[in-house]
Structure formats: structure tokens, C-alpha cells
Amino acid sequence: MIEIENIRKSFGASVVIDGISGTFDKGKTNLIIGSSGTGKSVLLKCIVGLLQPDEGIVYYDGRNFTEADKEMKSEVRREIGMLFQGGALFDSKNVEENVMFPLDILTSMSPMDKVERANFCLKRVGLENVNKKMPSEISGGMKKRVGIARAIVNNPNYLFCDEPNSGLDPQTSILIDELIQEITQEFDITTIVVTHDMNSVMGIGEKIMFLYKGHKIWEGSKDIITESGVKEFDDFVFANKVMSSLRKK
How far, CA to CA in Å, does 180 sit from each of 57, 98, 104? Predict the structure, then answer.
């Protein structure tokens, strides 16, 4: 479980996130949603330690990550897997080398064990016989799956996905969503997904945090979305459903 307490972050005079608290449950797909510019990515960066919040604390299974020393922060970071928005694969490395990269920098595994682990993870995401291909030789959806394989190669306790469906067609997006949820449940990971895609929300939104102008104004599951009673959230849901319907026509 990840817990955040009163997280606040400003850039100059601009307050981007203000007093956000909440919990992200283990074994569930926890979604942070909202329109562009609402602070989703900034909150995610504060949680993973890429940004230092001005106020507030982030706890990883009870460990105070925000105020931790260098040694403890390194320990927590070794338990984190990250799926970046653009895939962020190394163009100069083949698929197998990309997946093995976290093992190269975080472990002392033998080369044979690294290859074996990379192959296991590639197989788990439905990719076989592509080990020696370069990123330029595979599709966007395959790149995202390689990114997921790399994110889980080090057996993480925590998985972060930043707009995992960005640039993908609807059918491939569904496959990526389902894969993230399956891996979360199978390996009992605390997963946080940042998205504005209502298809993802309705598909895998087990726990949802909605941000509006830097504030958390609604929290719940996909099953009670229609009962929110929050105008800003209802407007977001309705607008995204309309746009989704138009894209499918």
C-alpha cells in the first residue's frame, strides 16, 4: 500500500497540487484521473520521488519515503517499476537488452539469469521471438508491452504507469489495460495509473482518484461513478464518454 498525506507542490507562485491525501491499495489498479493540467503527473512524480513536495508525506508500506535517508530511498526505488508514457525504450538496445536494463543496474545476477528473467517477462506480456529486434522494428503496442516487461523484470512491489495508452488505438489500449490489471493481481502489486482515458477508467478502475485544479474532489470505484454527485467530475466523465463515442464512429 502507498499512502499520501497532504501533498502540496508549487512552481513559483503557481500551486499545482494542494493538500492531496489518499491511499493506493495493494493488488488493485489505482487510477489518478483528470483533465490536462490538473496535476496528475506532478502528483505521480512526487510519489515516486522525481519531485520533492513542498509539504506532505509519502509512505510506502509504512516507510516514510519523503523524509527517508539516501539508503532507504534507494531501497524503495529498487522495489519500483515504471512504465513511461512514450515507452522510453533505448533505441540503441534491442528488446531483450531493454528489458534486462534494470537488472544490469540494480542486481548482480549472472548474464544467463538476466536473459532467463527477461524472457520470462517478455513471455508474460505476450511477446516471444522478438528478443533481438530493435524498438524501431516493432509496433507502438509492442513497445508498450516491452515497457511493461521491463517494469516488472525486477519483481517490483509498486508499479507506476504514466498514460499507458497514449498514442494507441482503442483495441490495443484495452489489451494494455487488461495486461496491467492481470499483472497487478497476479503479482499482488500496488499499481498507480495516471490517465484521462474513460475507457481505462471503466475497464480497470478499481480505485479512482479524480483531480480538479490541483485538488482531489472525488474518490471511488468505477461501479459508483454515476452516483458521484460532483458536477466537475460528472462533466469530465460525460465529456470523455462523448469524445470516446465519436472516435469509435
Answer: 27, 19, 24
Domain ranges of the chain: 2-79+157-248, 93-155
- CATH fold of 2-79+157-248, please? Rossmann fold (3.40.50)
Q: What single letter denotes the amino acid at residue 97?
A: E
| 21: its cell numbers | 491525501
Model pTM score: 0.88
Q: Could you tell me the three cell numbers for 51?
A: 519531485
Q: How far apart are CA 167 and CA 140, in angstroms?
A: 8
Query: For 8-62, what is each residue's pLDDT tens digit?
Result: 999 998 999 999 999 999 999 999 998 888 899 999 999 999 999 999 999 999 9
DSSP string for 47-88: HHTSS--SEEEEEETTEESTT--HHHHHHHHTTEEEE-TT--
Q: Rounded distance, CA 75 to CA 67, Å?
A: 14
Which regions of the chain does DSSP assign to beta strands (E)?
2-11, 14-24, 29-33, 55-60, 63-64, 80-83, 158-162, 190-195, 207-212, 215-220
* 150, 68, 33, 85: CA torsion to nearest 10: -30
pLDDT single digits (tens) 73-107? 989 988 999 888 766 788 999 999 999 999 988 88
Tens digit of each residue's pLDDT (9 = 90 or more) over 107-125: 888 999 999 999 999 998 8
Dmax (CA) for the chain in angstroms is 56
